[in-house]
Amino acid sequence: MSSIIWEKEDRKAFFAPSLPAPFSFIALLIALLSGGLMALFEPYLIVGALVLVLILLFKQYELAAGCVLLVSLYIDWYLDYRVVALILAPLLLVLLFLTRSPERPWTEPKVWWLWALFLGLSIFPAIRGALTIHDLVLYYPSVILGALIMFWLGLLIGRDIASVRRFFIVVAAFATLIAIHTIIQATTGITLLQSQVALAYLESVSNYQFPGETVYRLGSFFIQPNFNGMFLAMMAFIPFGLFVESRSLPAKLLFLGETLLIVTGLLFTYSASAWLGAGVAVIVFIVLVGEGRYRLQISLFLLIAIAVLLLGFSSQVNLLLQHASDPAEIQLRNAVWQTALRVIAAYPLTGVGLGHQAYLERAEPFRVIGQVLPYDHPHNSYLEWGAMAGLPVLCVFVILLAFTVWQALRNWLVAEARVRSLLGAALAGIVVLCFTSWSNQGWTLPTLAACGWMLLGCITSPLLRNSLLKERERMVEA
User: Taking residues 56-62, what's their average pLDDT?
Assistant: First the structure.
């Protein structure tokens, strides 16, 4: 297991000397500033801040990137500070630039013109929609500029397959903790590290309780159960990819256990779209896994998992199916989408503005009869881009997303069979996010978008491609 989780060259890198002068002092300053930000916003997180400083000083950048995602979820989303991860991520990029070397090379996103178009076209809708401080911070800094920052950070993290593996181990552990937290909520009714703001919101929506039941849909630190379901469905493939790729029995058992915990946590969200997205992504993962014997293992695992769910969690499965087939819910969601389409028809070029308040006010004249209540977003990320920012922004976003997925497939093609399971797992997770974004906010929710863009950057990195090509040449020569 140790040979899988911590390779020999990684141990050497860990104990390598510090940065060359004059960058050592600057790196220390950045590390202290990054950690201090967390303690500044929440004093009880001072221990976490100190840990982050140590992580950066010891150049464990894959772990630091995972910390950025954790901060994005808990501090920015759950505690509602919004900006801490937006500061940490650029600081980490600066640190990676200062520490660049032949072992840790620097790279930049391709098709800069496409990213510039995405950032440029979004400026006017972002200004027009910034009616509140929340929306001012949410869309352009977090979702739009944040996409480039997180993607770029992923490019630098995924410099070779060992780095990708280490980052996936961190991400899998992160997702497992969220799953365990969800399970604790379901079995004890206790929310650890609870926020009073989140508690007040949950009380306003009856804690997402099923009508006539004593069962609640659980969102963990995402608060909203659909968001939690999207995250867990996306991340379930990461430890499963590590399970397939690993050659060590202890490591396989560890990653399999993480996968089962994440799937169990997903069940308690009762998110139909997340389960449908996971079902579609399973097919993608089976195609991309690399070898026929792996496909057989996955098929057997799926049969066992389905049997366990039907026999051990039959009541939860029944509630999930009832929720998924609720005609009132389906009709309401369709009505919300129809309203968004009418808004797009009225404002095709610039939308009504990138903001929840702007959409709530300006979409009201176009609300269809079936939408009994006003909503502040269309419950569909693609319609959200079109209705709030206009069709040009939507088209650029789709093209940018498609290009990055194509780059990931190119890296998958040059990888050896065993490595393909890792890249295929990440691609399956991206499929989950793309699919579930049709029924809710996915690519337009800061935390979920950060996870998606960082994963995409990691597996599309030109540094990773160069490493894979060198490894293929070495194998051919051998």
Answer: 83
| DSSP secondary structure of 370-403 | T--S--SS-S-HHHHIIIII-HHHHHHHHHHHHH
Q: What is residue 100's DSSP assignment?
A: -
Candidate ranges 44-53, 168-177, 214-223; pick with highest mean pLDDT: 168-177
C-alpha–C-alpha distance, residues 367 and 338, integer Å: 8
Q: State the residue for tokens 């503005």.
A: 353
Q: Which domain holds residue 70?
A: 1-106
Q: Is residue 77 part of a domain?
A: yes
95 within a domain of the structure (yes/no): yes
C-alpha pair distances (Å), 43 with each of 36, 47, 71, 221: 10, 9, 14, 19
- Ordered DSSP codes for 9-67: HHHHHHTS--PPTTHHHHHHHHHHHHHHHHHHH-GGGHHHHHHHHHHHHTT-HHHHHHH
CA separation (Å) from 377 to 89, 113, 127, 335, 445? 27, 29, 17, 12, 11
What digits encode the pLDDT tens for the residues 250-275? 999 999 999 999 999 999 999 989 99
Domain count, the chain: 1
Nearest by Cα to 170 from 271, 259, 239: 239
Assign 3-state DSSP to the chain and report helix, strand, coil percentages, each to 5: 75, 0, 25
Instruction: Tell me the CA distances in angstroms from 472 to 357, 419, 463, 477, one per residue in order.
Output: 53, 12, 14, 9
- How does pLDDT run across 390-418, given as a tens digit for each residue? 999 999 999 999 999 999 999 999 998 88
Residue 18 lies in a domain: yes
- Phi and psi at residue 383, in whole multiples of 5°? -65, -30
Query: How many whole angstroms separate alpha carbon 268 and alpha carbon 258?
Result: 16
Q: What is the mean pLDDT of residues 129-153?
A: 93
pLDDT at 437 > cutoff 60: yes
Residue 33 class from Cβ within 10 Å (0-12 exposed, 13-18 middle, 19+ buried)?
Answer: middle
pLDDT at 78: 92
CA distance 72 to 453: 13
| Separation of alpha carbons 218 and 192, rounded Å | 13
Look at residue 15 in the predicted model and tell me its pLDDT: 38
Do 472 and 440 meet the contact criterion of CB atoms below 8 Å apart? no
**Helices (DSSP H) in 236-313: which residue ranges?**
237-245, 249-267, 272-288, 292-312
- Number of Cβ atoms within 10 Å of the Cβ of 214: 6
Separation CA 147–CA 119 (nearest Å): 10
| Domain assignment present for 136 | no
206-210, 241-245, 441-445, 466-470: least confidently modelled range: 206-210
